[in-house]
Amino acid sequence: MKIGIMGGTFDPIHLGHLATAEAVRENFSLDEILFIPAARPPHKLGKKVSDEKHRLAMTILATQSNKFFRVSDMELKRTGLSYTLDTMNELQKNFGASAELFFIIGADSLADLNKWHAAKELVEKCHFIATTRPGADANFSAVKKFFGEAATKHIHRVTTPGLEISSTDIREKIRLGRSIKYLVPEAVEEYILREKIYDC
């Protein structure tokens, strides 16, 4: 099996996440995409993140109409920080040694991949798919220099739909009483408004 992994705080999940995941699934002929809301991402320590029950619920609502999308709460159940290496090790155990894992990241995250926890071991263990918008191209030379041959084999780039949507902007719009229609799935919009997640 070829499994795509879409991680993030999903605070909230939006149409940009979904369009990217579907484009990657098609481009790389993946069997499924697993969305994994993060519990305590190391890079967001000290930043306020919404309650995990809401982020999980929104992710489930957003993905339920796509038969190739699944959601896992594995990182929410784990204690301590959410390191990608721990998640990949657990997934490999669950799916078996023959499964190929493809971790989806943005092109901006690719530039910082060398700073991730146990980065070289991680790139040896799974594939990374860096998504770029049309007309943009991440600087790949520094990444190849750091990871060597593993970068050529396990780090891939793909152009995905250029949806300029951010979770930060969505939260701000809600605080200002502005519409988020067509930025998130309708079910997610209804959930956010009903639960008053981002109200001041």
Give an overview of the whole structure.
With 200 residues, this protein is α/β, with parallel strands linked by helices. The protein has one domain: 3-Layer(aba) Sandwich (Rossmann fold). 42% of the residues lie in helices and 17% in strands. It has a six-stranded parallel β-sheet with strand order 3-2-1-4-5-6, sandwiched between helices. Helix 2 links the parallel strand 2 and strand 3. It is globular and about 50 Å long. The mean pLDDT is 91.
Question: Notable features of this structure?
Answer:
10 helices; Rossmann fold; single chain; 6 strands; alpha/beta; 6-stranded parallel β-sheet; 200 residues; 17% strand
* Averaged pLDDT: 91
> Number of helical runs?
10
Helix content: 40-55%
Radius of gyration (Å): 17 Å
Termini separation comes to: 44 Å
Q: Output the CATH class name.
A: Alpha Beta
Low-confidence stretches: none
Kindly summarize this structure in a few lines.
This protein has 200 residues and is α/β, with parallel strands linked by helices. 42% of the residues lie in helices and 17% in strands.
